[in-house]
Amino acid sequence: MNRTTQSLIAAVAALAAVTGYAMTSTPDGGGDDAKAAARLPVERSSLLCPVPSASDLAETSYTAFTPKGAASGADGKAELLPATRELTDAPKEGGSGADKKKAVKPFLSPKTPGKPVTGEETGGESPALLGTADGDLAPGWTVQQTTKYAVGSGRGLQGANCTAPDTDFWFPGTSSAKGRSDYVHLTNPDDSAAVVDIELYGKEGALKTEVGEAIQVQPHSSVPVLLSTLSPEEQTNLTMHVTARSGRVAAAVQSSDDELGGDWLPASADPASRLVLPGIPKDATSVRLVAFAPGAEDADLKVQLASPTGSISPAGHANLHVKSGMTTAVDLGDVTKGEAGSLVLTPTEEASPVVAALRVTRGKGADQETAFIPATNPIGTRATVADNRAKGSTLSLVAPGGTGKVKVTASEGSEGGSSTSKTYTVKGGTTMGIKPPVPTGLKGTYALTVEPVSGDGVYASRMLEEQEDGVPMFTVQTLPDDRGTVSVPKAEQDLTVLQK
Fold this sequence. Notes:
Helix content is 5%, strand content 48%. The protein is built from 2 helices and 37 strands. Strands 9, 11, 12, 13 and 15 form a 5-stranded antiparallel beta sheet that branches. The radius of gyration is 23 Å and the shape is globular. The chain starts with a helix and ends in a 12-residue tail after the last strand.
């Protein structure tokens, strides 16, 4: 092959790795083209963490981590900076204020892959944060934000896996009911304004709202929007659709309940006919399923609980009919009956796309706490979650199809400890709830990576829990692919014709 051809192919591959252009894999496979494509490590990654709290009593910790593995071959740099920082400093001599970016000290700055870096904030002054990584630190770049509320509305642990900016988000499981405060945080990382629309759907369809249209999110700013201000109708179960008509944002919902605590509600996976919601705690006292069909057709779903011994239909809820454009909610009670479980939704007839999420409650009486589990994607090539502790971390693995085998790796500790790995086999149709491996000689916190070894697609989530004054505080994060690699399509054009 001549040098000109080699250079052109290298340029195409590099562009794909930098921009994130990819042919994403699906549970059904990507076809012959996807199989022929090469997977390359990404060269740049960005994540946004929402404003954690306005309470002076809140304590927030951040953990940043990049797994060891296939790297880009370039020295890396990673920083966690205020996303709402000022853009300019003193002007250059003879120039305007816009000529110079203001230097801001990073809140966190990991130096090498494989070791987490942590930081803490106390009180209500923490801004939204923008995490960027390139080179060796970009593939699988992960940031976890965990806030502990000792008292007040939303009391408990509230965890968020910081996410990449996008243009389209679905949030089934939101609410505008009395005693519930749901804020959607819209954060714009770019130098130009974003324009965002918010639509709400209740049990009878779309709610009328004018203030949810054309919301301006200025450059490098974050806007919290209280859902109850968008419509005068109080509804216990809502589905929210957030779209950016221009620009891009990160969107996450912070839900607080006067009696049941609260947590962050991440966006559901994209609408699909088959959904997996992994990791219902074995001691869940109440589970509510909220689903929405955004297409033109109703959806009829088979509801199954993947338990440690096999798949079963919840009593009285074997099937679920979801009307098009309307939010459907069903209370499943203590569906897990003391065993780890995951919910699997499949079409009973003609497939129609659906989004869904679970609201999970633990505890009783005044000592209750809630968390959310949205439908998610499989672990893919590799999934990563940060901020695990020696005590209080539970990993849930579910194989909704055939049996799958995965390797779980515990990273080095943030303050010391050696990495260790263990392989698990998850039987088809079951959920495995495990105490994950812990680094040898652990000091501080650590990260977990989950990688497929063989078999069908495996889904995963991590629960982080802590007891305080009788309250079972907890938060659940799902583990989709960490987007550490992109699939670069094989060039179909014969580039040799370009040589003269």
